[in-house]
Amino acid sequence: MLQPTSCPRLPSAFASDIRNFAMETNIESYLIEKRVFKPAKEFAKKARIKSLAQYQKIYRESIRRPETFWAREAKELTWQKPWKKVLDWKAPFAKWFIGGQLNLSENCLDRHLNGWRRNKAAIIWEGEPGEKRTLTYQQLHREVCHFANVLKRNRIRKGDRVIIYLPTIPEAAIAMLACARIGAVHSVVFGGFSADSIRDRIADSGAIALITADGSYRRGAVVPLKNNVDHALSGGTTVKRVIVFKRAGNEIHMEEGRDVWWHRELEYVDANCEPIAVASEHPLYILYTSGSTGKPKGILHTTGGYLLGIYSTMKYVFDVRDEDLFWCTADVGWVTGHSYVVYGPLTLGATTLMYEGAPNWPEPDRFWKIVEDYRVTILYTAPTAIRAFIRWGDDWVKKHDLSSLRLLGSVGEPINPEAWMWYHKTIGGGRCPIVDTWWQTETGAIMITPLPGAIPTKPGSATLAFFGVDAAVVNERGEEVGANVGGKLIIRKPWPSMLRTIYGDQERYQKQYWSEFKGRYLTGDGARRDRDGYFWIVGRIDDVLNVAGHRLGTSEIESALVAHTQVEEAAVVGRPDEMKGQAVVAFVTLKGSASPSTRLKAELRDHVGIHIGAIAKPDEVRFAEALPKTRSGKIMRRLLKEIASGQNVTGDTTTLEDFSVLAKLSEEE
Ligand code: WT7
């Protein structure tokens, strides 16, 4: 079972092993990563948390008395009305800072206007074609207030849901902050999602308005955002108003009485808009993510607790300073974009860099050119990007001066030790600590992570839990397992930035996250802890794939496939992929009248692209005469996974209904 460290597929290999072997299998032999990197003295001296001992002390206190810890942190935020009670926990329902009232946009903007930060850059943006824009806190404040009045003018009120379908441009942040300013609930839909995905999210959230752009840029081409919106809205919708920002200048259709231009609307309103005080538990946003059933889940985050989670992590994990330039490369459409492109940095009064486009446009050195041009100091990106850079070659990196960097971050999937080492040496010049941050859309903020001046890092490990986060690895019976034993990662206590529910589906919320171990949050990830208590995240152990750092539900892709007229049945599994972490493999049986062809394969891939978005397109479509099923008719995905990754089927097949199916599947291709 020993995996050499040079194996680029380490995390995924772990994942399948964890699933295939009993949860209590001793996987001690995996402990091959012996390299330890201590925080440099210089770095530690300046950091907020300066030593392991200091971290441990605060951590212990934060777990013993979470409410005291969080209340102390929360005092650093701006409240319009103080809270009466820190936490009300009736598992699995948490309320934080009861009685407290605040406004998130006030925390991100207004409170930085009193002193010198007023004229500090809040957002530095670069468009894919190369345009540059800088917005100071004062300017951003004005834009947000102005646009908040546009929302009001368009009858958007507190509590209304608003879909934001924009590229990573300042207007995405402006729209989010403007919603927060008036208490409207935003739901950002990733610009790579298709019309069908937008339609589903509108229907589920009951959104009354949508904010989009005519188009955005991706690898030099224009993505027709407004066009996608038109398709999504055809055939009945709750959306009454569409506000369109002019970005790419592509030709679009404006529906009379429904669609209005962003820039025109600004002319009708002034730029004075007080931030309204909302209750701490007032919904802030809904963000859809994949689960193990076909329907994406609307993860609901509320105001006070979420703000506190991103504030504290931004402060301690990135240890961000006024002179920093913080660049999180995520798209605003993902939770990372919400928490660490927009809300986190702005809450701290930091400068956030936003980049609209692809990392390899026009050449594979775009990121390094940006780091050099702006003197980025903190870079937060994903393992899938790091692996792509490795493949494109060091020459692209060496063309640029990256000496401004002082801290690196990783998020989205387990980072394999070799990619970690490359990031450390080639990007960080051996001098920058790496924070490998584990968290989820549901957790709102970083949960397991090194603190850069305090916690020694080991390549491939997210190290230790953040303050107030009571993470544990347990077996099937919910008992904590010993060192180097694999199990399920759970969180044993509520934390401020946790999701409050799945929008409109309290039951699913309870069942999905809190039922397996009562009163404990089930992450869906497998993990182990080593002898130092370090967490080694293995990856998803449910029917969720992690493709290039993005979550895709296997059953979501399956439902898209069976919606095709020629498909009888489909099963989707992940296969380890050097670049993307996991690749999507679809096994498809066709209806009697249909016959397999290369053309049909391409058609099915496009079909998934149309129904979900390009990121969900199967990397491989395999036609099968039948799928392996148990006697009770359940598809045996484990066997398909083994076949997809070119392994021999080894596990237990005794429950298989028809053995000939397996032989035929393995013959295919
Ligand atoms: C899943 C959550 C949280 C922002 C991006 C993804 C995986 C995330 C790590 C990490 C190992 C990680 C987990 C998790 N994941 N970060 N540092 N090490 N795995 O958010 O789409 O909600 O996905 O991403 O499997 O459950 P998401």
Oligomer: single chain
Q: What is the fold named in CATH at topology level of one domain?
A: Rossmann fold
Using the alpha-carbon principal axes, give the shape. Answer: globular
- Approximately how much beta-strand content do the residues carry? 15-25%
**Tally of alpha and pi helices:** 21
Helix content: 25-40%
Mean pLDDT: 92
The ligands found in this model are: 5'-O-[(S)-butoxy(hydroxy)phosphoryl]adenosine
CATH class membership of one domain: Alpha Beta
Unreliable parts? 1-31
Radius of gyration: 24 Å
Architecture of one domain, CATH level 2? 3-Layer(aba) Sandwich
Main sheet, how many strands, which sense, barrel?
A: 7 strands, mixed
The CATH fourth-level homologous superfamily of one domain: ANL, N-terminal domain
Topology, number of strands: 30
State the end-to-end distance: 28 Å
Spatial strand sequence of the major β-sheet: 5-4-17-16-18-19-20
Structural class by sheet pairing and helices: alpha/beta
